[in-house]
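Why Putative aminoacyltransferase, E1 ubiquitin-activating enzyme? Reviewers of the renewal asked for a concrete example.
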Amino acid sequence: MRRIASGRLVPRNCSCPSAMETRADLKGVKSQVQNLVEELHGTCVNTQREATLQLRLLAKHNMNNRIVIANCGAISFLVGLLSSTDKRVQENAVTALLNLSINNDNEIRIATAAKAIESVVHVLENGSDEVKENSAATLFSLSMTWENKVRIGRSKAIRPLVELLGNGSLRGEKRCSYSIYLVEFVMNPEAGIVYQTIAVLAAFCTSHEGRIAIVEEGGVPVLVEVLKLGSERGKENAAAALLQLCTSSDEQCSMVVDKGVVPSLVAMSQSGTPRAKENV
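Here is what the prediction returned.
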């Protein structure tokens, strides 16, 4: 989820913007952003659409712009517009927050803003398909620190995320990433829905693309952990997923065995549920 700036070295004899020019550019951006922020708390929907769109675009590729936008106080207004009844305003606002969250300081600012995570969850539950996907991506981006993980886990975001994963609207690799990320929350017994998330991973395992994505995204250790420590339903789905991996590729089978899965499978074959035993 992190965008990494190019690490190319610039030759000394090339024509580069001077520090003065850079400051002038930032001053111009600041003035533009201040005007856009003023427009955010107006009442004209068309103005809000355009202002949120411009902030979304300004925050898309430029780290300095992300800092300026946050420093100008845009975050709280963007959060407020997540409850807009206009779908375009809502989409632009959540995507602008997603782009802003790439900056580590902004990630904290957004997560700690009043009702920010709850508002992102609101559009995750009620927005259009694209808004839902960008909301999920925003939560994913915000979850890079443990404190934010706790905030997200307490916000009742898990169930709508699982539902989004289950409806098939996300590309396989992205859905797999989100599934694995969700397991960090749902391994907590209080969440109560680990089996739903692992069921999504098990469904991915039925396709070649899904199996590759699960392996590349680090899903095998997650499945093994659920097999060892999860609920009975979670263990059933984990066993089904691991069976798909083992029967489709010798390389994937070796990877599963190397993770120490055999003792758990033996225990399941002796004391697991009938469905789980079928997958052992």
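DSSP finds 18 helices and no strands in the chain. This is the kind of structural detail the renewal will allow us to pursue systematically.
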